[in-house]
Design brief:
2 copies of one chain form a homodimer. The first copy, chain A, is mainly α. In chain A, strands 1-2 form a two-stranded antiparallel sheet. In chain A, a hairpin with a 2-residue loop joins strand 1 and strand 2. Chain A is built from 16 helices and 2 strands. Chain A has one domain: Farnesyl Diphosphate Synthase (Orthogonal Bundle), CATH 1.10.600. At the A-B interface, helix 4, helix 6 and helix 7 of A face helix 4, helix 6 and helix 7 of B.
Chain lengths: ~350, ~350
């Protein structure tokens, strides 16, 4: 329990959700399905576009943006459209990832492409991407200076480029036999860390932080992202299926180049032989990974990135209870559930 | 021949191409294919990513942006990153359109998805989309005021939203039996006109035009877009295959709801019966369209939109030879080749 984090979450997330709803409000009956697909993906309506709600995401990224803005002594309400933009961008990437990976379910429900087909789902992702920038442009309506808006745009646009670079590598690595730890880090730096770094940095930009503070908040976010991804990789193999919400054998079966696997492949020739074969015995793979110390290696990486995140956060001198909430959130994101 | 248009084309387009090349320059060997797919689509390299060049697009949209900026007494060099952004956005939409339509060729070469598969092609489109905003953010480096950059961002982001709305309707209409002219116009307003309107308006914004002038340039672009699309629809049925570059039966065979078809379906019950059937006799459809006056109707629409474009252009009081070039370009875009 962290009273500060709970308090902020209850205050911030409804504001972000209201902003996203305003951006994605249908303005003509012709666009009912256009907006409906996005509303469905965000967990607001069921597949028939009725009012029954599904499970929304955790909205961690917008929460970080607003916490950083507050902790940097900014007016968090000015950052709400940017926080909404980050969440929309994240969800655009999920809609396209699901098509690219052929995933039929997400958060216990059918994916957008499974319900509306690949062509409309590609376009639904593009719509969400477009809406993200439309959201970002709305910070100008909240009294954010034009120079600050342009700074935020530059950081946001670069994060988008990094995101697609990471996704490109992730897909290539699936069929690439040899991937080393450095290549893995390059991939997750784009796929996961760039957006969390951007959300933190934009929170600091809108709070008009000086460059050094802004840099520490960006590095805080980047390290949170790296820790989060490495931890997610561990949960993908050793997590509790109920808690994790997805099968703990799929990462092995699809030969995903996660951190424990990349490390294990470098250590164990038996694991390399196993991965080179046509059939992959999941239990044998897990045993070999454990024997190679891959789980310990990955968890040590999680600890290292978490500590780096905390160190940058401290150097950014976060003010008041929002600083406590950021520390608590970081710990929660990487707490051991395995 | 229009000496002014030729002169501007030779001056502007290499500057745009250089800007796009700078944005899409690979910064690490890992991203050779990431950038290579985009370079291939833009016609710079062959499928093996060698230096042999394919056929690039006509780059009409960036040309309009820079001509308008010049005609509105702005410094066209300041608008080059915005013009590059528009061209990148247009090309992102083509990469995704090709996947959505299942098109295997474009400009006589294999499409990106045909060469690299759907997952990587979706991501290549997303990369191009991301690069478009990275390009737009670069106007700040050319001395464009932050307020002007934010104005451009707002117009650009709304054009993206409109683009995806138009694409959504276009795909829905393929399987929808009845589409009326009003619905058709709503679709092309998003799919084609919004981006040409935005490129013209952003040219005027960067030239610091007053709101009334800016509005006329936006309306000029919108009407050019509508005329261009209606004309393209006519060419899709009655054009010369060699000139048009695609089969003149495919629009009929795929039952595309183009302007002549939408009009013809409203006029002719025989055509409606033909379109309701499982098999579609192309020659019979063309005969019925002609008998219903669908070609004349569509060409009259082309003329009407062209005249509206010219009227708005006149009211925007374009200065010097760039104004002549804009008039010439408009005429060229909709000149009869059928």
């Amino acid at each position: 329990m962290c009273p500060a984090l709970d308090h902020y979450t209850r205050q911030f997330l409804p504001a972000v959700e209201a902003e996203i709803k305003a951006i994605l409000e249908s303005d003509h009956p012709s666009y009912k399905v256009y907006y409906g697909m996005m509303h469905y993906h965000l967990g607001w309506v069921d597949a028939g576009l009725g009012s029954e709600s599904g499970t929304a995401g955790k909205r961690i990224r917008p929460l970080i943006c607003l916490l950083v803005c507050d902790a940097a002594s900014g007016n968090w309400e000015q950052a709400v459209p940017a926080a909404a933009a980050i969440e929309l961008l994240h969800n655009f990437s999920l809609i396209h990832d699901d098509i690219e990976d052929g995933s039929r379910t997400r958060r216990g429900r059918k994916t957008v492409w499974e319900l509306w087909g690949v062509p409309q789902a590609i376009n639904a992702g593009d719509s969400m991407f477009s809406s993200a920038y439309a959201a970002l442009a709305r910070v100008a309506d909240r009294g954010v200076a034009a120079e600050t808006t342009v700074d935020s745009l530059q950081v946001f646009a670069q994060a988008c480029v990094q995101l697609t670079k990471g996704q490109h590598l992730d897909m290539r690595y699936e069929t690439q036999v040899s991937v080393d730890v450095e290549q893995y880090l390059q991939m997750i730096a784009g796929k996961t860390a760039a957006l969390i770094s951007a959300t933190s940095e934009i929170g600091a930009i809108i709070a008009s932080s000086e460059p050094e503070k802004r840099r520490h908040f960006a590095e805080f976010g980047r390290n949170v992202g790296l820790a989060f991804q490495a931890h997610d990789d561990v949960l993908g193999i050793w997590g509790n299926e109920t808690t994790v919400g997805k099968s703990t054998v799929s990462d092995i079966l699809t030969r995903k180049k996660t951190l424990p696997v990349v490390y294990g492949l470098a250590q164990s020739s038996e694991l390399r032989d196993l991965y080179a074969g046509a059939q992959l015995d999941v239990q044998r793979a897990v045993d070999l990974l454990e024997a190679a110390g891959a789980k310990d290696y990955a968890m040590a990486a999680v600890d290292r990135y978490s500590e780096a995140a905390m160190a940058h956060l401290a150097k950014a001198h976060p003010a008041g209870p929002a600083g406590d909430a950021l520390r608590k959130l970081t710990t929660q994101l990487v707490k051991r559930q395995s």
